[in-house]
Amino acid sequence: MTRCKAACVQLRSSDDVAENISVTSELIRQAAAEGAKFVATPENTTLMAPDGGAKLERSFDEGNDPALPAFRELARELGIWLLIGSLAIRTSSNKTANRSFLIDPQGVIKARYDKIHLFDVDLPSGEKYRESNTVEGGSQAVLVDSPWGKIGLSICYDLRFPQLYRRLAKAGAAVLTVPSAFTETTGKAHWHTLLRARAIENGAFVIAPAQGGLHANGRRTYGHSMIIDPWGEILAEAGEEPGIIASEINLEAALAARARIPNLEHDRDFALSVAPSEGQP
Q1: 115 is catalytic
Q2: How far apart are the first and last CA of the chain?
Q3: Active-site hit among 4, 156, 184, 240
Q4: Does the global pTM surpass 0.85?
Q5: Which CATH superfamily is domain 3-266 in?
Q6: For range 156-165, the mean pLDDT
């Protein structure tokens, strides 16, 4: 197969894990009922806590997380590929992993990806984020085979590191997933530009499900889940409200884009030379 209908589930998750599982499951069912065979949810699908400490208190190790068996059974029941954008998976007494799970139509976890780049930022708006205080960063890029092409996994802040996507694309990724919970401030400034750039420069589809709106903990996320084709065209886009968007993806479009602009083939290693300052020998 080269074609597949893909869908993004947009959420406004709270700190109530059970409620988030229920809401997410209903939207996944809706996407499948509309013909989607690949469904992706955002970062922090089942838990948007007020701070890292609260997230740690409400998180589980992988073997005891209540969301995983529910979503695995849902993928099996619906016969879909399901990307859970991320769950907070406890890895120690003081750290979690921000982990994506790709589940196949038999309910088998085909891949796990731990977010590599952690969001430690002071924004001009006064917002402060220190993800590394309670999150253990990943160290491995992940590429997965699917019936319609290879899928490269990433999460949110990874989007600002193009070398990750270039490596995935050069390894064969035709689809890049970017489940996110972008802040409203950074989303307005950069979300569209960064997502389209990652699609264009790699000749790949970008599937980016997002959190959107004002959450119960007071945080506001940008929303605007998107599906973008390898030429940079936005095929589907959400607003701020929870819901689903969907579009067909076709591996042949990625091959065509890479044939028109063969930059992946032309990519070269190079040395860096630093010229001396004026007046120095």
Answers
A1: yes
A2: 61
A3: 156
A4: yes
A5: Carbon-nitrogen hydrolase (3.60.110.10)
A6: 98
